[in-house]
Here is the input.
Amino acid sequence: MVPQGYCRANELDKACFEVALGDVAGPIDSEYGYHLLLVTERTNCPKLDGRYTRIVRGDDGTGTKFVERGTGSSEELAKLTLQQVGFWLSVTFAGGALAEIAAKAADVVDTVPWE
Here is the structure.
């Protein structure tokens, strides 16, 4: 989520805060081309969105449903936390492996300390 004024294209920035939650707007012409805009989450816009703050995929996987503000469950928070931890651990290990491969390929080090 970004604050108003974040987008470089004024047309997109304006549309982000005028389009109703869950509606598709567009095509929007800007200096960067044509865009379709779907607002899936927004906070601090009660006049525009009412009591809802985001839309999520429905239980059947095809539809959508609106989620009220402040209804995030502890299960969702635990799932998000686990996803983030897993992602950053993967990035850390992949980065280390890539650094080792690059160092060996460039003959920067003859051997690594753990070999």
